Amino acid sequence: MNRNTLNIIQLGFGMLLVFFAFFSQSFIVETVVQNRHDEDPSVWKHAGYYSQMLAYVSFVLGNLAAPTLLSILGPRLSFICAALPSPIYMSGFLFFNQYFLYGSCIVAGFMAGCLWTSIGKYVAANSDEKTISRHSNLMVFIYMPSMIFGGTFLLVVFGSRTDQKISMETTRLLFGIFAVVNFIGVITLGLLPQKRKNDRHSTNHFKELVKTVKLFTTRDQWLLAVPSAFTGIETSFFTSVYPTALSFTKSFSMNTNQLMGLNAIATGAGELFGAAFFAWSSKWTDRIGRWPLMWIGTGISLISYALIAYNLPANSTHTMTNEKPIASSPSITIGLICGFMLGFVDCCVNTRIMSHIAIRYSEDPAPSYALFNFWLALFTASCLFYGSVASLYMQLGLLSVGSLASAITYTIADRNLMNNLKLTKGTIPEVKKP
Question: Where do transmembrane segments lie in this chain (predicted)?
Fold first, then answer.
């Protein structure tokens, strides 16, 4: 195992610690906030949705500024400054003030743009054309068990409590542990060995922003914009809307807080299975292209959306309900299978886009990663905004259209890339500088 692979492993473990907290809280934050609203009506009923929406709106701006911030801060300081606001946000739930919640979400969201761009750039710097798919899948394979660990943790905490509500005492226990684990993750990322490969930053920081804006107008980026946008609405759905719908459907035969923990485990298992599957298939996808796997993910996504519509009532995304779904009664088994499939689809789309960017823009991937996260964040924020009012069926319809559109546009982009690779006899095509 060479030094570059060891660096990717350390990166994966740092992300494991950070996202153990992030994914776990995103699964429960709307339920936590609604329980606080029941105790104190001055707390907005959907502050959980709205705070996450603010985080992703600021994430949009953070992604545009990310390449410039990376060039100013440098690799190590970028990781530390970008990840540190997250445990600060988690700490706010120890006393719970909704205005601190909104403010800390805005800061954490803005710096998350820098974090994700740093991650993408670090993977590219430690990889080449032959290892990029393996390294991307290895990173996902290491950090995605964070959902399984987080779900297990939620299940243990909620399993000892019979109350359907999440008390303030339980909230402090959960988010206190989240904050500590998150901070350890920040330290792990800050200690990453630094790579200078492909780290060609202009001394004029304004030019970094101009480069990103110019890349925005290229045909390849507009083709990638559609799957990137779909990743956004899919991310908000499986991390926030779907777990909330499970929690608010009170006709299940078990405590729905425990069901949220089980769903987190199922979703993490889907991500993990996807990473293993895509790593196994990386050799032949390097030869024929990555687009066939995108269509596999699309097919699975459409099946999962149909099952969710069958299993959950339409109003379960924004209010607690005993309404019956299309099925005579909601099935725990179907609910968990859908969670597994949503995790697999998320892994599929993200790894396809990341590997495409790393190969297509190998000389300077940071602006392209920033644009990918720009579209992801913009549509995640949009989904969280309408998620509090739109019916479950309407959201599933939008997801279905987005899944099909993203598969089509990604296929065009990936086939163009493969044709360029063949013309250059297997070398990475020269990127036209914006």
Answer: 7-29, 49-70, 77-95, 101-119, 140-161, 173-192, 222-242, 262-281, 293-312, 332-349, 369-387, 393-413
